[in-house]
Amino acid sequence: MKSGALIASLALGLPGAIAAPPGFEPANVVPIVGRALPNAPDGYVPTKVSCPGPRPTVRSAAHLSSNETDWLKKRREKTQTALSDFFDHVKVGDYDVKSYLEKHKSNSSNIPNIGIAVSGGGYRALMNGAGAIKAFDSRTYNATTEGHLGGLLQSATYLAGLSGGSWLLGSIYINNFTTIDKLQTHEDGAVWQFGNSILEGPDTGGIQLLDSASYYKDIADAIDGKRKAGFDTSITDIWGRALAYQMFNASDGGIDYTWSSIAKTSEFQDGDYPLPLVVADGRNPGELVVGSNSTVYEFNPWEFGTFDPTVYGFAPLESLGSRFVGGSLPSNESCIGGYDNAGFVIGTSSSLFNQFMLQLNTTDLPNFVKDIFNDILFSLDKDDNDIASYDPNPFYQYNNDTSPYAKQTALDIVDGGEDLQNIPLHPLIQPERHVDVVFAVDSSADTTYSWPNGTAMVATYERSLNSTGIGNGTSFPVVPDQNTFVNLGLNTRPTFFGCNSSNTTGPTPLVVYLPNTPYTTLSNETTFTLSRDDNVRDDIINNGYEIATMANSTRDGNWTACVGCAILSRSFERTGTTLPDICTQCFTNYCWNGTTDSREPGTFEPSVLIEDADSAAVAAIVPSMLTTAIAAGVALFTLA
Ligand SMILES: *[C@@H]1O[C@H](CO)[C@@H](O)[C@H](O)[C@H]1NC(C)=O
Ligand SMILES: *[C@@H]1O[C@H](CO)[C@@H](O)[C@H](O)[C@H]1NC(C)=O
Ligand SMILES: *[C@@H]1O[C@H](CO)[C@@H](O)[C@H](O)[C@H]1NC(C)=O
Ligand SMILES: *[C@@H]1O[C@H](CO)[C@@H](O)[C@H](O)[C@H]1NC(C)=O
Ligand SMILES: *[C@@H]1O[C@H](CO)[C@@H](O)[C@H](O)[C@H]1NC(C)=O
Ligand SMILES: *[C@@H]1O[C@H](CO)[C@@H](O)[C@H](O)[C@H]1NC(C)=O
Ligand SMILES: *[C@@H]1O[C@H](CO)[C@@H](O)[C@H](O)[C@H]1NC(C)=O
Ligand SMILES: *[C@@H]1O[C@H](CO)[C@@H](O)[C@H](O)[C@H]1NC(C)=O
Ligand SMILES: *[C@@H]1O[C@H](CO)[C@@H](O)[C@H](O)[C@H]1NC(C)=O
Ligand SMILES: *[C@@H]1O[C@H](CO)[C@@H](O)[C@H](O)[C@H]1NC(C)=O
Ligand SMILES: *[C@@H]1O[C@H](CO)[C@@H](O)[C@H](O)[C@H]1NC(C)=O
Ligand SMILES: CC(=O)N[C@H]1CO[C@H](CO)[C@@H](O)[C@@H]1O
């Protein structure tokens, strides 16, 4: 994820020419299915609107918004039912989980509160994360059979995504909480057509009906419109528009879909699905390196802001672009709408990738298109290539005493992984949210061969140690160093952290760490791989499914029970309930027990565990998870 790697991969060469425009085939147009709302007032251009309700203000981060607390009441009712359904097929020994849930349902704060976090890592993270979500979704075919984990998504309160993980969130939420199956369909009009690089633009067989030149012209027109309306634009505007064409199933690349529109759909308002949280980092004034003391922002469907002690405030998302001063909108300033374009939001979270757009110059696009981009790109300082410019800064003169951004008229926002916290845990460890368990899907490329090694977990743990400073009262389970992650194989199998709630830096969720590892395919394509065919896409998604379910529990027949134990653990503590024996056994197997091995490991090169999924289902009934091929993998580097 370092800039060096990006430059290196760009140097490998991207397409110099863009495919010639194939003919239009209107017959292939699929009907537009439901999704978030196309409610922007003027496409991509932020525009004066009449203020939504009372004049918008920035609020303190001391509590959750009333929007969230109101919504939670509805959602927690839905998750109770969903959890009860989940435990229909997920058995925790002979413990009667359904009766337990029934007994405590009158006090919803006793019921498990689940978060899911999907890391960054480009398309690899999007696909591996999609595999996990597919496994957790009760709508997936056969996902609610024994050994599977369908229904966990329906039981979750929060779903957080960062960078590539935010593309996954955008694909799901802007398309009306669609399923992974539908996104990856092989039928005409599939949303996820990753055979076409984002530099080429969408396939004309789908809903977009654009050749590359029109694709770029449309993008250029949109950004030009925003500039002409008086708003600063950055390379992230181009990037976000391009992403929208790939992720949103809407004509014109979903140009008029806003992120705040998610909150306006009736299904969301009824609490039918989890709260999506997109994470991005702030770059400190005058600093080019984004370190662990950078501010971590979240976009939720109502607001943009942060719990960090710097800004410590939230601005209404639908009114971004309005000129707030000291947290309120002066009477001579208009309310602005449409700034929170959904593509721009996921583009912001993934701004590490926007430098691809610098390659536009090397294509054979018409000059008039290039000219528009060059105005934007050429005016950029080299150091500003990876930022999204939020101008006006909604936190201008807000919290003067603590905010390093209070004097800035524009906010520089960067990729959510640049502070190394590549798993979006930050919003899920906020004490106000009281999350009990986080399923942390890690597709980071930490090692030479693009496998995770716990770096993201370490970064979040270390930040939480500064509880009176930037951590601002957050806590995290104790985790070991990366060498230990590799030496003990904690990056090749699910590991629980924070099982013992006293061995944490304070009240914090139990974290179920789900590292990307090769079950059925080498799912470690590099972060900057721009295209892959549908079969590779599907293989990586399937591999993600195997990771989440431990190959449908064939690697450990108790796996789903253990997931159940992780879900119930904090709730049992609150209600003074004794853990069933099977959970004790699970925690012995899956909880990191404090052992470390910090010797420098050799090169980490895991190989595919299951060469053929069908035969594996028979062969893989192993007495203990530690005797599997994982152990062989561990041996490789402990011997080295
Ligand atoms: C969104 O999906 C829900 C559930 O599948 C469906 O009932 C609803 O009609 C869809 N909304 C739109 C606008 O299509
Ligand atoms: C959030 O809640 C406030 C206060 O109840 C309300 O005025 C506002 O309209 C809500 N925002 C959204 C986007 O629903
Ligand atoms: C779906 O689940 C049923 C019942 O467990 C099983 O018989 C069937 O083989 C499964 N189908 C697939 C494609 O996995
Ligand atoms: C962040 O940390 C760096 C390195 O320790 C330090 O130089 C910088 O002043 C810090 N910035 C802020 C805003 O605290
Ligand atoms: C693209 O090419 C034009 C003409 O050669 C040049 O003026 C411009 O600086 C280049 N832009 C970028 C971003 O490299
Ligand atoms: C914040 O600083 C600005 C500029 O120094 C000042 O005008 C404003 O009154 C300050 N706001 C507060 C609430 O102190
Ligand atoms: C873990 O990942 C970090 C970040 O990429 C890297 O610097 C470090 O060398 C890696 N360590 C191991 C043991 O893989
Ligand atoms: C903790 O955070 C404060 C304020 O953000 C900072 O000044 C201090 O250097 C940090 N301490 C450590 C050990 O990082
Ligand atoms: C697990 O289930 C999924 C979905 O039903 C299936 O595609 C996959 O082949 C199964 N894997 C194994 C190892 O049985
Ligand atoms: C937590 O566990 C670690 C590793 O075993 C140990 O070093 C530390 O002392 C424990 N801390 C607490 C507060 O129990
Ligand atoms: C994926 O990882 C394997 C080792 O686990 C390695 O041999 C292979 O080169 C890696 N592929 C990429 C694209 O990095
Ligand atoms: C728990 C905690 O330390 N909260 C602090 C977070 O930051 C704000 C703003 O600086 C403080 O007012 C809180 O006390």
UniProtKB/TrEMBL annotation:
Record-annotated membrane-spanning stretches: 616-639
InterPro entries assigned: Acyl_Trfase/lysoPLipase (IPR016035), LysoPLipase_cat_dom (IPR002642)
Alphabetic keyword roster: Glycoprotein, Hydrolase, Lipid degradation, Lipid metabolism, Membrane, Signal, Transmembrane, Transmembrane helix
Family membership: Belongs to the lysophospholipase family.
Enzyme Commission number(s) of this protein: 3.1.1.5
GO terms, biological process: glycerophospholipid catabolic process
Domain PLA2c, chain residue ranges per copy: 50-597
Signal peptide range in chain numbering: 1-19
Any one of the GO CC terms: cytosol
Highest rank taxon of the organism: Eukaryota
Pfam families named in the record: PLA2_B (PF01735)
Protein name from the UniProt record: Lysophospholipase
Catalytic activity, reaction form: a 1-acyl-sn-glycero-3-phosphocholine + H2O = sn-glycerol 3-phosphocholine + a fatty acid + H(+)
Organism this protein belongs to: Penicillium steckii
Function: Catalyzes the release of fatty acids from lysophospholipids.
GO terms of molecular function: phosphatidylcholine lysophospholipase activity; phospholipase A2 activity
SUPFAM superfamilies: FabD/lysophospholipase-like
